[in-house]
């Protein structure tokens, strides 16, 4: 078999972003040091975090423990974090990344993303960090007049200041990207979106990749992460136990998780699975050196149902962001 691609080369820097990374969402800060350390030991080189996950101190401890023990050098890792909604305003972007870097004990990140195209009212970190969707004591989102073009110019300054090697966006649609392309000095390196067989976003993925922007999928296992968060997460058939996915897994001698991750990677879409179990960490990483047959890919493609689980409306927010 021809040598398989394990990285995506990013558009401006040529940095090689691993196609498989480790996601930090929903890991308690207290568990984070050991989890991230074990993930790096298992072979993960991309660590995908965010300020709003409230675990960057633990993430940083895990990274720095692995560096200190000589398992990796800092330049071997590809560290990702994200700008939260409350810090879109011009004067708050740099302090936001500075706080993330301080919490993680790092000098720079490899990729810094705007987490959502949603500018909300600034919350002083001394009051609450990093601030939620809704201000304390309010019932609806308090928006702030912080245009993306102003925010993006500040993101570009982070590249100039060498505190972020690459910058990108998350949860943006084609319209938001088109607008951004008209004024950016530095094109986004990546777009991170929800992506799994129930929500394949084929047209979005193909168009974005044609623009030279890499795509990263979150929630590759579909409803698994959302069972406690939305009715849709509870009622949708879990992808990991779906008969089709299980059948392909047993025929190929792989796990259902490996099948789902391989399906994405064959679209040249990066994945960031999370597991707290060391054995599963290793198998989730083992998705190269084999491929899914086209007939199996076609069968998985038929699972499309437009089911979005990370939806602001299902969280009770008056914001139909993806409509």
Structure report:
The protein is built from 11 helices and 10 strands. With 323 residues, it is an alpha/beta fold. The record marks 82 as: Lowers pKa of active site Tyr. Residues 23-303 form the NADP-dependent oxidoreductase domain. One of its GO terms (molecular function) is oxidoreductase activity.
With strands numbered from the N-terminus, the spatial order across the biggest sheet is 3-4-5-6-7-8-9-10
**Share of residues in helices:** 25-40%
N-to-C CA distance: 42 Å
Low-confidence sequence ranges:
none
Keywords: Oxidoreductase
GO molecular function: oxidoreductase activity
Domain NADP-dependent oxidoreductase: 23-303
Site (Lowers pKa of active site Tyr): 82
Chart the SSEs and their pairings:
Elements: E1 7-9, E2 16-18, E3 22-23, H1 29-42, E4 46-48, H2 56-68, E5 78-83, H3 93-104, E6 109-114, H4 148-160, E7 164-170, H5 174-183, E8 190-194, H6 202-210, E9 214-218, H7 231-235, H8 243-252, H9 256-265, E10 269-271, H10 278-285, H11 294-301
Parallel strand pairs: 3-4, 4-5, 5-6, 6-7, 7-8, 8-9, 9-10
Antiparallel strand pairs: 1-2
Protein name: NADP-dependent oxidoreductase domain-containing protein
Family: Belongs to the aldo/keto reductase family.
Pfam families: Aldo_ket_red
């Amino acid at each position: 078999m021809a040598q398989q691609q394990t990285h995506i080369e990013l558009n401006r820097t040529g940095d090689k972003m691993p196609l498989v990374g480790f996601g930090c969402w929903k890991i308690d800060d207290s568990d984070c040091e050991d989890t991230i350390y074990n993930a790096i030991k298992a072979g993960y080189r991309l660590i995908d975090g965010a300020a709003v996950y409230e675990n960057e101190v633990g993430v940083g401890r895990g990274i720095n423990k692995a560096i200190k023990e000589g398992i990796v050098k800092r330049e071997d890792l590809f560290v990702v974090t994200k700008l939260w909604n409350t810090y879109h305003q011009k004067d708050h972007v740099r302090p936001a990344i500075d706080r993330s870097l301080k919490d993680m004990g790092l000098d720079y990140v490899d990729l810094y993303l705007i987490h959502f195209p949603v500018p909300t009212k600034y919350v002083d970190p001394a009051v609450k960090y990093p601030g939620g969707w809704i201000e304390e004591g309010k019932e609806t989102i308090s928006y702030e007049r912080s245009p993306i073009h102003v925010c993006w110019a500040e993101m570009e300054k982070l590249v100039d200041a060498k505190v972020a090697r690459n910058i990108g966006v998350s949860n943006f649609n084609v319209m938001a990207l088109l607008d951004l392309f008209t004024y950016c000095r530095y094109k986004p390196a990546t777009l991170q979106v929800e992506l799994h067989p129930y929500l394949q976003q084929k047209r979005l993925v193909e168009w974005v990749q044609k623009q030279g922007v890499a795509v990263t999928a979150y929630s590759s296992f579909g409803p698994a992460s959302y069972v406690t968060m939305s009715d849709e997460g509870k009622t949708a058939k879990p992808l990991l136990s779906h008969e089709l996915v299980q059948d392909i897994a047993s025929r190929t001698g792989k796990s259902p998780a490996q099948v789902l991750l391989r399906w994405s990677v064959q679209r040249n879409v990066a994945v960031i699975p999370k597991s707290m179990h060391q054995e599963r960490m290793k198998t989730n990483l083992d998705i190269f050196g084999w491929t899914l047959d086209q007939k199996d890919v076609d069968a998985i493609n038929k699972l499309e149902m437009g089911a979005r689980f990370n939806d602001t409306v299902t969280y009770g927010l008056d914001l139909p962001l993806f409509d």
